Amino acid sequence: MTTASTSERSLTRTGVGASGAGLRRRSGPVQSHRWYTPWLLIGPAVVWVAVFALWPFLNTVVLSFTNARPLRTPEFVGFDQYVKLFGDDQFRYALLTCAIYVIVCVPLLTILPLLLALLVEKKIPGIAFFRTTFYFPVIASVVVVALIWGWLFDSKGIINQTLQFMGIADKPVAFLVDRWWLLACAILLTVWKGVGYYMVVYLAALGNVGKDLHEAAMLDGAGAFRRFLSVTIPSVRGAMLLIAVLIAVSAMRIFTELDVLSHHTGGPGGYDMSIVMMIRQAGSGLNGNLGYAAAISVVLFLLTLIPLVAIALLNREKRANS
Amino acid sequence: MKFRATLVVGIAAATALALTACTGGGGGSASGGGAIDTSGELSGTIKFQTWSLKNEKFSPYFESLIKDFEKEHPKVKVEWLDQPGDGYQDKILSQANSNTLPDVLNLPPDIGYPLVAAHKLLNLAEADPQLEAQYNKGGWEAYSSYTGIKGTYGLPWYTGSDLSWWNLDQLKAYGVTKENLPTTTDAWLDLSKKVATDSQGKVMLVSSMPGLDTFVSAGIKVMDDKGDFTFNTPEAEKIVQKYADAYKAGAMPPEALSGTYSGNAEMYLQGKVAYSTGGSGFAGDLRTKAPTLVDVTAATARPGVPPLFVQGLNVSADSKNKAAALAFAEFATNEKNQVAFVKLAVGFAPGTANGADEVVKAVESDSNVPPAQAEAMKIMFEALPQAKATPYQWTGADTTFLNQQMALAVRGDITPKEALDKIVKNANDNRIDK
Asked: Mutate which of A51, A281, A287, A298 to disrupt the B interface (most B C-beta within 10 Å)?
């Protein structure tokens, strides 16, 4: 039937075509548009990407090979800015700071929100209050929060006064001046502020985990911890991977917490300066060294590619296994 | 196919143009042009840009200033723009890149340098050779000392310096009175150590780290004749070591190691430290933010060579109405108008050769100005002739690096020599005029 119908339609079309003066015969599929029509359709999006993503990116790469400063004609200097960067102590400190941030924040912000989500997904009276409380830091401005934390950790702040009152410390702890304390305070702030956001992501992921899986596991005699390991975690594995990558990229680009807590200086010796703080310091103002700032930006871009490539490889492996 | 090829070539050309335009280039018209006659009839519209001065206090002054100028030159219209305090450099950069610099604008000498180097500002000494005699010498020099560039690129508008502020209430228990306050950096650091030891760290007299101005005030030559920074000297090392000793004795709050300049004054207002530096306007801050400290605070001249802060008015080299712009810049910075301005901006001195006495008299007889502020202002005005500005080559990034290294040296993590050598090397490696 199908073949007959198709032949019929073809015949009809040929007949009409035969009677139409000057109508060309087509051998391939029907083409009802010019070759550039698809380009016109995607044009606005391509222009948008070219102007606001591709051009700035290429510009940054080109700048990194120059000695550009504002209002001066840049000269190409080859890899000089990169040579200078890899010999710069400040960059090594910034790299270490960001690496520690990634190493500490990724596990904390991947696991803690999941545990919190498991707690608050229970349908018990008053749980909405706890959900709101855990989410509250997310909506607060990070600058305002960092300023408040700065006051809390000040040498005459409430934390130091409490420690001294309780006899735990005999003199103020230099939370915001010591390299490691400052970094710990900033990480604590990032974790406190981020945990609510990722908790919501996990709540959405947990909503998709079928109850039948848990029931089947219970029938097989699995306890709560076993079910967490064998049912919950595999079910939210995708969300975990995504969250881990997002945190790794954010941690690599950390700025506000360290900037505000260290009064924009990166702490004594600049040991707590992040890579983005370095870019700001090098490239801002009328005297900014734009070439150097661009070189740091390019290196930061390459560093942030690492977690993205990692998740792509993991996903490929998962697809291959399944 | 032809259309496709054209499209590809077009995109390639646009990309190439975009890439070559990466920093706005170094173009700009030449700043020269010889003398400009402002005596004839002027006409047209000019734009005048100030920096964070449009507010209840100063707006009436500027409105009246513009009205008076327009009365003298009926065919000229002045449009007043004001930029917020934050991000001023970025705004100037954006204006310079897009060739939309206002005709007359307010730039201190260090921010002015990149524009001078890019030929974006008018050489005012060339435009009107009679101007120099009318202005404060230090201020005029600040706009005339750009390495390898002849001319003067700003008219001194208002100037200021710092004083030392002491909390006598905290110090009296240790035998310190207004009469025996230290007058040298050495004496102050010695006293800081003693008071900190005696008070077991409760009274702190060091509120900030040593900066470039510390070495300038100690009489150390911070730059040589070639324009290289050279303040990594044994004298500078001794000063840094004294700061380290004072910190060890508890004379300095830990926050000062990562603090900014405003933090220095802020800590004084909060009662955390018994010493701060600040302009004579600091007395006004005391009155509004810490009234209990007004009667127990004394102001003295900064030890050694005091710092000089200069603000000026500049004329854009790309102005389409240079004569009117120059006439307005001269009008706004003449003695009469500057004196009227600093009577409002209490704590600053006029950038003119004369007029300071008139300001002091006016402030002393003004019942709204507290006696402490009038006294502080008198001390500052007396110190101004000796005051010295830090070199324009010293940038904000240099200050940040200095603070980072000084914090390590003051804490004893590195030696003063190591810190100073690093700071000097970094400043020379990144000199903006190289």
From this structure: A287
CATH topology of domain B22-159+308-389: D-Maltodextrin-Binding Protein; domain 2 (3.40.190)
Over residues B106-149, the pLDDT tens digits come to 999 999 999 999 999 999 999 999 999 999 888 999 999 898 89
Q: Which CATH homologous superfamily contains domain B163-305+395-429?
A: Periplasmic binding protein-like II (3.40.190.10)
Angstrom distance (rounded) from CA B35 to CA B105:
20
What is the pairing mode between strands B104-106 and B44-51? parallel
Measure the N-to-C terminal CA separation of chain A; round to a whole number of Å. Answer: 40
Closest to A268 (Cβ–Cβ): which among B28, B201, B407? B407
- Provide the terminal-to-terminal Cα distance of chain B, rounded to the nearest Å: 50
The rounded distance, in Å, linking the Cα atoms of B13 and B19 is 10
Question: Is the distance from CB of A238 to CB of A228 less than 8 angstroms?
Answer: no
For residue A283, what are the β-bridge partners? none
In one-letter notation, the amino acid at residue B317 is A
- CATH code, domain with A178: 1.10.3720.10
Q: Is the pLDDT of residue A189 over 70?
A: yes
Number of domains in chain A: 1
The closest CB to that of B114, out of A171, A174, A286, belongs to A286
Check residue B334 and report its DSSP letter: S
Q: Which two tokens stand for residue A209?
A: 């985990």
Contact criterion met (CB < 8 Å) for A289 and B430:
yes
pLDDT of residue B369: 77
Report the distance separating Cα B38 and Cα A238, nearest Å.
73
Residue B2: which pLDDT band, with cuts at 50, 70 and 90? very low
In the three-class reduction of DSSP (H, G, I as helix; E, B as strand; rest coil), residue B312 is classed as strand
Structure tokens given for B66 = 């513009």
Beta strand extents in B205-322 (DSSP E only) = 275-278, 297-301, 309-315
Dist. CA B157–CA B338, nearest whole Å: 7
The reply to whether residue B23 touches residue A154, judged by beta carbons under 8 angstroms, is: no
Amino acid present at B164: S
